[in-house]
């Protein structure tokens, strides 16, 4: 058997390659494991995928048809950020890699790629496991997946693999299982999310974390681990259901308008300091072998469970102050009688003062005294012994302090246990009986032979207490699992409220507006959401696209702001669809089912792909997958080949996209494309203005960038030459370059076709008709205002 980073040989699961679930409640490291299987023969391209987070017991199943470049697979994996990806060994038999295996292997260098024997991918076993593990209120998922051969096969391998890796089994009827075949989300491919800097920024700045100057960094004001994860997944896959989005916007508006609800909610959510998903994972995983560590883990789980369920009434009370439908729906969900049942179960077993606290020693003490007194006589005696040992340790340290005349104090760490500390300024030479001395800048740490013996007795006493307590706590956890469904609901509610609180916080510190959703994209004075937060001033711009003008061509010199403008459009679309207010004076959006981009022109040395090859790959993906409700941004297409071929390709691609009715924003230096406006009525030309300013001496001309979008194509000609002049090239060379460029331009202008009056009239008729249709579908004007508009 074999497994590990970049490993590909045939193997069976083993536990060394994948990290164990951390016991730290607030640990937020990625911990997803994914299994992938692909159909063979005629079913090639049909992908089955199963994933589970080791800290969140939600099993997610997917089955879908993917393209030859496996973009959907790559996108799902990017969202999951898995620590391990498992394939059947047949994917790389005899060194022959299947295409999907090769794509994943090349694109996920930080994930362990592991193969297991093909017989683990068994759809019959997968269905049996799902029937055994799914919680009762979630059992309808069985109907969804019964005929999904590939995702069932992937789930069988995943569950078996996790049990090997973690050395645990999942309790029956304890998992939430989701099938996401055709979910109501907007698809954003991995390349687009990278270019738009959705979760990490591309510019390296040592003083800035990679996530800070990204969309995620700008919006993330969450208080809980689950809220942060939900925000990230929503940014990478925004919902496209209008009802869901409007419900979120209602909550954000009410939270930001009512300081009482806002601060009340903030206070309650801050007390949910532990990761509820991680807690659920600990609750449903049953170790195959009991050890001292697993017993401690059970005790910690019970204490955290008590902490979380005690906060439900406070959260419910805060929700009752809200008026939104979603607030009331959450309140009703939290009034589930099962929360009361769980609290009753806990109160019968656990001490009323048992609390989650920070610090190893504090938590150790809480575990020792978590079980109620009087339930187990031997346990009570063991705790008396433990208390006496702690008193003996304190007395020993006091005696040593008195004996040597030093201000000694007790300390505790996991590695050393109880030991003694003294400030370095209080002593010059330590007595010889102080052993295992370590020194920091301000403190000596050491112990004695007697203290070591007492530490050993303390450890034995704690093991006895854990063993006796675990018998009662294990029964409690079994009872709680019968009500686990309400805890999944609690986790979802807390995460969603935390994310929406973050949106409300953003609204209170930013000048923004609630977005509307119509069949038109119209933004007045919109601002780039990331730059708006990190720059002192951002130039706002308008955006418009509708059925009658769905294709916008944007021209302008280098550095005039074309790329930033395109990214702003896509980012504002995402911000609106996740349910957040947008930085603008007015914003109306059409729901996008996919967001595509073609930005950037770097060669890819890893795959030996030139700029032009990369451009063609990306644009081909867009052409194959775009639909009427897609949003497409394209920047500088065709620069990787000759200008004649570049213009020809851009023209043909533009004509193809014109027919699709996608909202397309096409930034280019090829001014020939601007002639499309005179041929097609749904094309609009825009440009980013620049100004020419003479210096005070009047001898030099300076270019000033306004970053303002203006209708019509740019009147600037040879602006590449103008930029080159700033670098002080020889004047003779620049004169010759300008003369040659002018000749070519004159020849091109002479060959232009003259637009007829009939063509202009047809275009005007078309645009007038589309405006009438738009008013009929989306207008909210009164009758008098509508008459004035007409």
TrEMBL record:
Top-level division of the source organism's lineage: Eukaryota
Designated name of the protein: DNA mismatch repair proteins mutS family domain-containing protein
Residues in DNA mismatch repair proteins mutS family domain copies: 630-646
Region listing for Disordered, in residue ranges: 1-32
One record GO biological process: reciprocal meiotic recombination
Keyword DNA-binding: yes
Keywords: ATP-binding, DNA-binding, Meiosis, Nucleotide-binding
Gene3D superfamilies, A to Z: 1.10.1420.10, MutS, connector domain, P-loop containing nucleotide triphosphate hydrolases
One GO term describing the cellular component: nucleus
PROSITE patterns to which the protein is assigned, alphabetical: DNA_MISMATCH_REPAIR_2
Keyword Heme: no
Family stated for the protein in its record: Belongs to the DNA mismatch repair MutS family.
Ranges annotated as biased composition (Low complexity): 9-20
GO molecular function: ATP binding; ATP-dependent DNA damage sensor activity; mismatched DNA binding
């Amino acid at each position: 058997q074999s497994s590990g980073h970049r490993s590909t040989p045939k193997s069976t699961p083993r536990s060394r390659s994948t990290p164990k679930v951390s016991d730290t409640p607030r640990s937020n490291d990625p911990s997803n494991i994914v299994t992938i299987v692909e159909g063979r023969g005629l079913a090639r391209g049909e992908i089955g995928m199963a994933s589970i987070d080791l800290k969140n017991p939600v099993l997610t199943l997917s089955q879908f048809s993917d393209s030859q470049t496996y973009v959907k697979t790559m996108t799902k994996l990017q969202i999951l950020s898995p620590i391990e990806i498992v394939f059947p060994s047949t994917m790389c038999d005899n060194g022959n890699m299947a295409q999907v295996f090769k794509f994943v292997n090349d694109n996920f260098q930080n994930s362990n790629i592991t193969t297991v024997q093909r017989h683990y991918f068994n759809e019959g076993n997968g269905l049996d496991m799902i029937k055994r593990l799914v919680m009762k209120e979630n059992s309808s998922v069985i109907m969804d997946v019964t005929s999904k051969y590939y995702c069932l096969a992937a789930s069988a391998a995943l569950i078996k693999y996790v049990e090997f890796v973690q050395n645990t089994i999942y309790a029956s009827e304890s998992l939430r299982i989701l099938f996401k075949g055709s979910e109501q989300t907007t698809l954003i491919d991995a390349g687009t999310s990278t270019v738009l800097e959705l979760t990490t920024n591309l510019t390296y700045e040592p003083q800035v974390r990679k996530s800070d100057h990204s969309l995620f960094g700008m919006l993330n004001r969450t208080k809980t681990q689950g809220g942060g994860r939900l925000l990230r997944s929503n940014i990478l896959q925004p919902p496209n259901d209008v009802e869901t989005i409007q419900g979120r916007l209602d909550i954000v508006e009410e939270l930001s308008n009512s300081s009482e609800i806002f601060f009340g909610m903030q206070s309650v959510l801050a007390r949910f300091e532990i990761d509820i998903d991680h807690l659920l994972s600990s609750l449903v995983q049953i170790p195959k072998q009991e050890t001292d560590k697993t017993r401690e883990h059970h005790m910690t789980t019970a204490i955290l469970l008590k902490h979380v369920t005690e906060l439900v009434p406070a959260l419910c009370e805060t929700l009752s102050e809200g008026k939104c439908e979603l607030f009331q729906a959450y309140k009703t969900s939290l009034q589930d009688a099962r929360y009361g049942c769980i609290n009753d179960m806990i109160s019968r077993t656990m001490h009323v003062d048992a609390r989650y606290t920070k610090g190893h020693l504090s938590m150790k003490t809480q575990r020792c005294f978590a079980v109620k007194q009087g339930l187990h006589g031997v346990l009570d005696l063991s705790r008396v012994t433990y208390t006496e040992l702690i008193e003996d340790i304190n007395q020993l340290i006091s005696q040593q302090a008195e004996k040597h005349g030093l201000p000694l104090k007790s300390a505790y760490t996991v590695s050393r246990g109880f030991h003694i500390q003294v400030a370095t300024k209080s002593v010059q030479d330590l007595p010889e009986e102080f052993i295992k001395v370590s020194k920091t800048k301000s403190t000596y740490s050491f112990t004695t032979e007697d203290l070591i013996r007492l530490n050993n007795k303390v450890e034995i006493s704690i093991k006895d207490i854990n063993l006796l307590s675990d018998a009662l706590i294990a029964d409690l956890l079994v009872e709680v699992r019968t009500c686990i469904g309400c805890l999944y609901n609690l986790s979802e509610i807390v995460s969603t409220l935390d994310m929406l609180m973050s949106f409300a916080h953003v609204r209170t510190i930013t000048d923004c507006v609630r977005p509307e959703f119509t069949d038109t994209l119209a933004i007045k004075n919109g601002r780039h959401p990331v730059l708006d937060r990190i720059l002192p001033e951002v130039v706002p711009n308008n955006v418009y696209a509708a059925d009658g003008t769905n294709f916008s061509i944007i021209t302008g010199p280098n550095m005039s702001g074309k790329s930033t403008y395109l990214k702003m459009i896509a980012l504002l679309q995402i911000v609106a669809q996740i349910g957040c207010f947008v930085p603008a004076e007015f914003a109306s959006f059409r729901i996008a089912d996919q967001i595509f981009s073609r930005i950037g022109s770097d060669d890819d040395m890893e795959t030996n792909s030139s700029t032009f090859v990369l451009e063609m790959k990306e644009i081909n993906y867009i052409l194959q997958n775009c639909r009427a409700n897609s949003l497409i941004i394209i920047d500088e297409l065709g620069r990787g080949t000759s200008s004649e071929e570049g213009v020809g390709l851009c023209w043909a691609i533009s004509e193809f996209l014109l027919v699709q009715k996608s909202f397309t924003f096409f930034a280019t230096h090829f001014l020939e494309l601007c002639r499309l406006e005179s041929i097609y009525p749904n094309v609009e030309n825009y440009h980013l203005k620049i100004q020419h300013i003479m210096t005070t001496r009047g001898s030099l001309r300076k270019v000033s960038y306004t970053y303002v979008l203006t209708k019509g194509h740019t009147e600037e000609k040879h602006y590449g030459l103008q930029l080159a002049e700033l670098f002080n090239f020889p004047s003779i060379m620049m004169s010759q370059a300008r003369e040659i460029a002018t000749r070519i331009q004159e020849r091109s202008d002479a060959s232009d076709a003259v637009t007829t009056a009939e063509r202009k009239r047809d275009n005007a008729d078309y645009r007038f008709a589309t405006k009438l249709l738009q008013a009929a579908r989306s207008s909210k004007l009164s009758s008098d205002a509508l008459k004035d508009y007409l």
